[in-house]
């Protein structure tokens, strides 16, 4: 059973920690060129960690989503996610990943 399946069975699939796992899975799927699944995991993960105010992890998710868009050839989407990541990083004085 996967970690996400384990969390879902216990009603914990909406916890911020699960968001971190989803972002990590999305990054892995991106490396494996599974762009659809990667975008799905990254979107869900970023939403979860954003609710918890974990902006450093949100930035990580936004950067990865930008890479998904770039790989798909969607220049406009790439810039949207990259700009949002930069805005969040500057707002919290984070180092960009």
What report would you give on this structure?
By secondary structure, the chain is mainly α. The protein has one domain: Serine Threonine Protein Phosphatase 5, Tetratricopeptide repeat (Alpha Horseshoe). Helices cover 77% and strands 0% of the residues. It is built from 5 helices and no strands. It has helices at residues 3-9, 16-31, 35-51, 55-72, 75-91. The radius of gyration is 13 Å and the shape is flat. The chain starts with a helix and ends in a 6-residue tail after the last helix. The mean pLDDT is 81.
**Which consecutive residue ranges, at least 5 long each, have pLDDT under 50?**
none
Q: Return the CATH architecture.
A: Alpha Horseshoe
* Global Rg: 13 Å
Helix content: over 70%
Give the averaged pLDDT, no decimals: 81
Q: What is the highest CATH level, the class?
A: Mainly Alpha
Q: How many helices does DSSP assign?
A: 5
- How many discrete domains? 1
Class of secondary structure makeup: mainly alpha
Following the backbone from N to C, one meets helices and strands in this order, namely HHHHH
The CATH topology assignment is Serine Threonine Protein Phosphatase 5, Tetratricopeptide repeat
Largest sheet: none
Strand content: under 5%
- Please give the number of β-strands: 0
Taking the alpha carbons of the first and last residues, their distance comes to 31 Å
